[in-house]
Design goal:
Elements lengths: L1 E3 L4 E6 L2 E6 L4 E5 L6 E7 L12 E7 L2 E10 L8 E12 L5 E6 L5 E5 L4 E6 L10 E5 L21 E7 L4 E6 L4 E5 L8 E6 L2 H8 L13 E6 L10 E5 L4 E5 L3 H6 L10 E6 L11 E7 L2 E7 L4 E9 L1 H11 L6 E9 L2 E7 L20 E6 L2 E6 L3 H9 L6 H11 L1 H12 L3 H6 L2 H13 L5 E4 L3 H6 L5 E4 L2 H14 L8 E5 L5 E5 L3 H20 L8 H7 L18 H31 L4 H7 L2 H7 L4 H6 L1 H15 L6 H14 L6 H22 L3 H18 L5 H13 L3 H14 L5 H13 L11 H21 L8 H7 L5 H13 L14 H6 L5 H13 L3 H13 L8 H21 L6 H25 L5 H9 L4 H9 L5 H11 L4 H16 L12 H19 L8 H15 L18 H8 L4 H16 L24 H16 L16 H24 L19 H15 L5 H17 L1
Antiparallel strand pairs: 1-2, 2-3, 3-4, 5-6, 6-7, 7-8, 9-10, 10-11, 11-12, 13-14, 14-15, 15-16, 17-18, 18-19, 19-20, 21-22, 22-23, 23-24, 25-26, 26-27, 28-29, 30-31
Helix pairs in contact: 4-6, 4-8, 5-6, 6-8, 6-10, 10-13, 11-13, 12-13, 13-18, 15-17, 17-19, 18-19, 19-20, 20-22, 21-22, 22-24, 23-24, 24-26, 28-29, 29-30, 30-31, 31-32, 31-34, 33-34, 35-36, 35-37, 36-38, 37-40, 37-41, 38-41, 39-41, 41-43, 42-43
InterPro entries: Nucleoporin_Nup133/Nup155_C, Nucleoporin_Nup133/Nup155_N, Nucleoporin_Nup155, Nucleoporin_Nup155_C_1, Nucleoporin_Nup155_C_2, Nucleoporin_Nup155_C_3
GO biological process, one term: protein localization to nuclear inner membrane
GO molecular function, one term: structural constituent of nuclear pore
Amino acid sequence: MGLFPQIERAWITVDHRLIIWNYEDNNFYTYEEQDQTIINVGIIEPKKGIFSENVSHILVVATTLEIFLLGVEVTKNSFSKSGNISLYTTQLKVSADNIMVSAIVGTKNGRIFLSGNDGHIYELLYHDSEGWINKKCRIVNLTSSLISIFIPTLFSFKNDDHVLSFAVDNERGILYTLSRNSIIEVISLGKDGTKFDRIIQHKNIYSEALIMSPAFDSLGKNSFEIVSINVVPVAESNTVHLVAISNTGSRLYFSTYKRVTRIYSNEKSSPETLELIHVRKANTRQNESLSVHNGLYLNYATILANVKNDDYDEMVCSNIDNSAIQQSIYRNGKSSLVEYSSVLKIEGKTWAISQIGNSQNRSTNDLCNTDIFNHTKVALLTNSGINILAKQNPLDMVIWLVSKGPIIDIEANAIIEGYGRSEMCSMCLTVLSSDESTQRSLSLNAVKNCSTLFFEYGGVPYVKANVAMTSQLVGKTSEPQIIFSGRHDGLYLFLARLLTQTWDTPVFKLANLKDNQTYLTPNQSLDSLLEIQSRLIRLQTFINRNQRFIPDNSYGMALQSSDNFISDNFSLAMGKSNEGCWKLEADSLFGAYTLIQQIIESISFLKIVTIININVMANEVENSIKSELCKATLSELATSLHIRKVCRELVVSVVGSRNSRSEIVENIGEALGKNCGSFFSEKDVKLYRAFEYLRVAQKLGESNSDPEQQQSLLQECLEMFTDSGILLGEKKLKQVVSIFCNFNWHLGALNLCLGCAKNADPNDLAINYYNNTVLLDSGYHNQDLKNDDLSKQLYDWRIYCYNLALLFIKPENSEISNKLFLISLNFTDILFHTTLYDFLLSSKLDSTLTQIQTPFLVDYLRSTPVSIQKYDLLWRHYAYFSKFSQASAILHDLASGTLFKEITLAKRMEYLSLAISNAKSSLHYEKEKLPVSILNQMTDQLKTAQIQMEIVIVLSSKPDQENNIKLLNSRLFNVTELYDQFAQPLNLYEQILLLYKLSNFTDRVQIFEIYSYFIYESLQGEITNSSELSGPSNNIIAVCSKISSLGIRLHPSDSSFPLDLVVGLLVTLIADKQLYLSDNTENTSSISNPGFITQTLLDSNIPCVAINDIICSYLDFLLSFSNKDIIIGSDLRSDNMLISLNSPLNILKSCIIKSIEATTPEGEIFDIKSLNKFTNKNIVSILLIELQYLYRKWIDFSSSEMVNSEGSGADYDDNMFPAVTVTNSLSKYVLMANGFVNSQVISQLQQLQTEIHAFF
């Protein structure tokens, strides 16, 4: 006989009959369709793909002649807890070949191992079809040598030490065998379970155990026997792999890794050895000796079948004493293994011991049990019947205590001292969160006392001073540590234990449909998750009913706890100093409460996903969504915002599908709104309803029926979609917009895009992100501002919506839709306006910006990042709407500001000119006129800029002036800056004169030097580069050209073009060059080319009156000074000659000295005879000749009815010839100069006088 724990049954053989006993319902199933005596029976999991799906297990039946397989089907029903069993003949059988099978075992991948009485291990191979070489079923000897194949079975050697039992470790891929002589062999099956590598046979177990624990066995080696081997699961230990039980009840702990591997290797390999690492004697009373013939080690617990007499066995049961271990750890900081034991008398002899029931969700730690009735159960099969043992855990002990009656301090403190407050509170929550039927099965006091224990004995948070070792040496303590109450830690312990199997496990998995299409299906047991959800809902209800669970008054809560309830090991600082601890604990408990709610909703969402049509999910949901969700664990589903966003996208994809049935969409929306309140908000539910309305509208549109209802549905869809905001998602927004456009409702599509953008971000976090991050990347804002993931998400969403809206406003390769464009301008969304303006600029439609008027445009054009293009549009915008003063101000800022250094000087002058034009327009067309002073200021600034441009042009022809040119182009300079930084240091004389004229500044000495430079450098041909002006006579023409060009620009500015100095220099030049008179002054024919000075001044647009006045002033002075020389030799040595240039005498002296300096070679002493050229007589003669030339020209101007096209007289102010005044002047000068100057000159004057009389 034996046990089939997999199907919760026992088996018994009587000759050829196999009887299967359902000990739960006490009914039997008999198989007797064969006539051979059955020796042994085993149950295994079948290989996949060989049997039908309803066959859950296979029975391996070994008889004296053959071994055959039977299919096992267990059908669940309401009449039997373990269901009904059916056995099927499989036609898979093989000859036993005289092998008496002593043990049968199977692996999880369907391999079958057998042990024979010949000492060999066999494997039974079976297939679904028979081939040429391999039969459908055959048996292979895995331990025989090669030569044994050729020896008949009748004569083969038989080993008396045959295998009695197997133990399979499916997790590690190991097969253990226990032989008759207590030898344990380790066989590696590999990670995939397909190998058979014999690693080691441990034959010296007794000797090693005796060395390790001399008192472990008192019977001696000959009596030593191992009665049971038990695999230790990975969840229980990584280093201990096998526990063997001896006939004295001792437990031998083995590892398949060597000591070095156990200590230093993190990644464990395949089995290497079988090493005994620990020996532990049986936990008996007064060291009573035992005679064990069977045993079981299971989850730290041991059950030993001790032979007492022929009628009954004693079951010696031992388990970990969690209470003693907890107390030892609390008191000493560490603990050794402490066990408690009990002895049960069982009628009959024990044949088999095995764990029964589902242990998949049961923890190996008894303290982690969250199910009151989920005990570890063991079936004991004896020749008298079945006995079921239930392993007691600490929760059972607490329930027993709280079920007796009202809680008293002694009992409460016993639980606290035994397990601690946290464990006590965790166990109380296990009871309090159980279902009603469970609570009714307990005593009336149990639930009430658990609540009392939880609240009144759960402790309080407090501050504990941690004293570190290094601190003790100097007498200092480290930072204090906050210790939470038992209620707090108990809640977290309960949650951790309840969720330990599911928390980090993916909740979905992908299932294949067809054509590589996939859909989501639960990866975890939905029933298990719903059970967890039920527990959490009950826990949530308990919290809601007891408001003191999360304290809101820390000090008051502390006073509610009595000192009698607090162990001496806990310290409580009563008073306000403890309020911070209560606040922290309340925050933490509220976080746990929120987590509970999120887990409940996550499981509800998982359940909702199961009602989604798999075809819709396969076709409508993107693979990226399904891929992300199949990786998501329950923890991520409950806490990750990203995963929740993916869940929303899943639901939107489903409800937005036209293939989804209306009732399914309604059910999903209703279920989400009811069960996933924080998981899916009201906006989510409204969104799903909007998709349903849109689907109805589409159907109406396809049938061309009821257009009014169709438009009404679309309007409702628009409102609901707009309210949903970002929940709609980019893909679905684009899809809905496309549907609206198919209805030719572009206005609705525009409102949808802009509404979704704005409603998604009511607090304008996207604008903060734009200001603090987008502009920050351009280098315009404070570098201390930080990025925000939520703000970035909202910003990206709004920009996507705006870009979608722009497709309607300006379709690709089309003109702007003026209607939609004007409507969009009415939206008061600043970020949309910014995006719209950016789009217009990038699309080269910037001229449109000058013709629109919105509250945001001016700020946009002024905003960062600033650009010339935006400022150009800004002044044009002002000018378009007749705001000329503001346009002028912007233009003036562009011209004179330093914001844009890339603006050239020419462009600045253009801006300045435009600013002046707009300023003048302001004076004519605006009520609030621009002040005239500002206009005058800009006009002067433009003139200064023109001089600045001249300096740039001059410097462009000079080497090594790149820096100065770059500086001059960078901004506008004022007069002083131009003079001090450029004109004066670089000897730009013409620009100096222009600056003098503009500033009305006078420095006659410098001006005299400048004009002297121009005249004498022109004579030497250095100023002009024209080859046509080479030679002495042509150099005089060059002087005339230079002076006249200056006169045109500078006259009538006396500060920059003083006529007295210019005439003095020119007269001196004529005298020096003797252009009018030769050395022979009596030669009347020597006068040539008269009127040089006069013509130069006339070409300078100087009126005849002004020329007459200056010449007459010199003549009046010289003729009154005729008896003296203008200059003598001693004047040439005077250093103060140029100090005063206010009198004709000093001017002429300075001019003569300058002429002599210019004509005397460097390093030579001037010739005193050269002064003869500058006598009073010669100067007067020259002036008289100029005067008569002037009068003749004047007469021509006056007598001409019209100025010819070439005549410059059109530029003269007054050309009326004053005949009387001229005649009188001529008479005066003839009289005064007669006999003093050349007679030819006098004759010409007299002749001119006669002509004037005749003409007038």
